[in-house]
Structures are given as structure tokens and as C-alpha cells.
Amino acid sequence: MVSSIAKTEEFLKTTILTRLAIAIEAPKKSCLETCKEVYENAVDAMKSTLKEVNEGNYYEANVDVSAVGSNMETCKDCINEIYGDDPEFTKFDNWSHGVIVDASYRITSVIN
User: Fold this and answer.
1) How large is the average pLDDT for residues 97-105?
2) Within 10 Å of residue 18's Cβ, how many Cβ atoms?
3) Rounded to an integer, what distance in angstroms lies between the CA atom of residue 58 and that of residue 81?
4) Residues 30-43, mean pLDDT to the nearest whole number
5) How far apart are CA 68 and CA 41, in angstroms?
6) Fewer CB under 10 Å: which end of the chain, C or N?
7) Band of the pLDDT at 25, cuts 50, 70, 90?
């Protein structure tokens, strides 16, 4: 999860903030601002997940991981609407989805 946090922060900086800095059209700017907020929240949720797992609060950790997935879907929806099939976002989304599925599986396997 630590490497996932770093990779998400890097994506936020190199892709979302870079595109936001040059976005002129209101729909693009709004979408990227939403994504910025979503990814910042995702980083916070991942940090919270780590904390919860370390403290043995697996139910809370599972809630945090679910929040990461839900938040990222919000960004994915607007990116698809504004940019269509954007390879950079698609690649990151596929990777992040895999991380979320794996983390959920690991957490729920401890719970059950």
C-alpha cells in the first residue's frame, strides 16, 4: 500500500495537476479539479487503510479501501466523458483497480 500511495501521488502531480495547469475549457477544468480532489482523498484513504490494518481494525480498513474505489470511479467517469479513452488515465485506472481488488481481498480474507 505504501508504494500505491507514492504512485498515486506521482500520478496526481505529473498527470492531473499538469493537465489542470493548462486546462482552459470549463468542462475539462471542472473534471480535473474533481479528479484532483478524488485522488487526494484516495491517498488519505490509503493512509487510513494502512493505519487501520496496523491496528487490527480490518472492518474499518475495508471501508477505507471501498472508499478509494468509489472515489476513483467518480474521476474515471468524467475523464471518459471529457477525454474519451485516454491511455494515460486508462493505464493508471487499470493499475489502481487491481490494487483495490487485491487489498480488498487481503483484508476480507482476514475478516472471514
Assistant:
1) 90
2) 12
3) 35
4) 93
5) 8
6) C
7) very high
